[in-house]
């Protein structure tokens, strides 16, 4: 007897929730984020409160726990260093090289967190086609190409954003740049990186809300992580726009907004990293 699928939900080409009847009866529900982040799906008899079914591969779940910790701690430290860099820039207690060095160190942690997040998706427990409400794990992989999965696309774009930020941070060490060069080599990659972060965050909402627009789920830890990260991305974008150098004057649009936007946005990413420590398999 094969399972009977009752409903598939999602947005556009992405399926983010499946509900079906396993051969043994009852109902099973697979949701993308709980399955990949915590290794669980909801299963229970018909008319009864749902229980939790966990993948039986303890070794694979152990690897995912370590990946989750690496990603979370990396974002906590990266956000803390970005906040420190913005603080130094705001109070004027260091030269441009000092600020660039602090930001660059924070960027390395963001790169680490972005790649670890992608590895979580690549090696996450999968819904077993034709199974009885179980998850299975594949052999360890360092990379995959799965643009048809919203979780993969979200984390890939996030990782790409951290790499674009790395270009911006490396260019910030250059000396003697003209205003046009500053805007092209430093400001433009900053804006592109912020845009990629915003797209990644929106796809995170798509995964959780099972629709194309955001929702409100105040009791869902995953929702809070995505929401806090998205707020940080918005603040980063505000900071980037305020950091544009006017060609006529050679000054920033608003240095205070640029520094405070970076500081508060970085604090959001650190907070989301702390929350992520509790969303583990």
Keywords:
281 residues, alpha+beta, 2 domains, five-stranded antiparallel β-sheet, two-stranded antiparallel ribbon, 7 helices
How do the helices and strands line up, and which of them pair or pack?
Blueprint (H helix, E strand, L loop, with lengths): L3 E8 L2 E8 L5 E5 H7 L1 E5 L6 E4 L3 H34 L4 H27 L3 E2 L7 E2 L13 H22 L7 H31 L11 H22 L12 H22 L5
Antiparallel strand pairs: 1-2, 2-3, 3-4, 4-5, 6-7
Helix pairs in contact: 2-3, 2-7, 3-4, 4-5, 5-6, 6-7
Provide structural commentary.
With 281 residues, this protein is α+β, with helices and mostly antiparallel strands. It has two domains: 51 residues, no CATH class; 219 residues. Helices cover 59% and strands 12% of the residues. It contains seven helices and seven strands; from the N terminus they run E-E-E-H-E-E-H-H-E-E-H-H-H-H. The strands form two sheets. A five-stranded antiparallel β-sheet has the order 1-2-3-4-5. About 2% of the residues have low confidence.
Task: Write a compact overview of the structure shown.
This protein is of the alpha+beta class and 281 residues long. The protein contains 7 helices and 7 strands; from the N terminus they run E-E-E-H-E-E-H-H-E-E-H-H-H-H. The strands form 2 sheets. A 5-stranded antiparallel β-sheet has the order 1-2-3-4-5. A two-stranded antiparallel sheet has the order 6-7.
Shape category? elongated
* Integer count of domains: 2
Largest beta sheet, briefly? 5 strands, antiparallel
SS-derived structural category: alpha+beta
**Euclidean distance between termini CA atoms:** 30 Å
Computed Rg: 21 Å
* Topology pattern, helix = H, strand = E: EEEHEEHHEEHHHH
**Could you tell me the number of beta strands?**
7
């Amino acid at each position: 007897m094969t399972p009977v699928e009752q409903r598939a939900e999602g947005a556009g080409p992405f399926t983010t929730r499946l509900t079906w009847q396993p051969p043994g009866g009852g109902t099973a529900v697979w949701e993308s984020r709980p399955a990949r982040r915590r290794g669980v799906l909801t299963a229970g008899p018909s008319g009864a409160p749902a229980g939790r079914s966990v993948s039986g591969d303890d070794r694979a779940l152990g690897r995912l726990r370590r990946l989750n910790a690496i990603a979370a701690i990396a974002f906590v430290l990266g956000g803390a260093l970005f906040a420190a860099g913005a603080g130094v820039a705001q109070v004027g207690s260091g030269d441009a090289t000092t600020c660039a060095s602090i930001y660059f160190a924070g960027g390395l942690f963001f790169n680490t967190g972005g790649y670890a997040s992608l590895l979580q998706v690549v090696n996450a427990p999968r819904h077993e086609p034709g199974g009885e409400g179980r998850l299975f794990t594949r052999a360890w992989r360092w990379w995959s190409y799965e643009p048809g999965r919203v979780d993969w696309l979200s984390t890939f774009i996030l990782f790409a954003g951290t790499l674009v930020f790395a270009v911006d941070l490396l260019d910030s060490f250059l000396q003697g740049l003209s205003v046009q060069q500053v805007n092209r080599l430093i400001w433009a990659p900053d804006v592109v990186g912020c845009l990629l972060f915003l797209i990644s965050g929106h796809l995170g909402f798509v995964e959780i809300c099972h629709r194309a627009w955001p929702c409100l789920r105040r009791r869902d830890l995953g929702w809070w992580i995505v929401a806090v990260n998205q707020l940080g991305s918005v603040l980063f974008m505000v900071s980037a726009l305020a950091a544009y150098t006017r060609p006529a004057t050679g000054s920033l649009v608003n240095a205070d907004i640029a520094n405070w936007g970076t500081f508060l946005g970085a604090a959001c990413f650190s907070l989301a990293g702390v929350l992520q420590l509790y969303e583990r398999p």
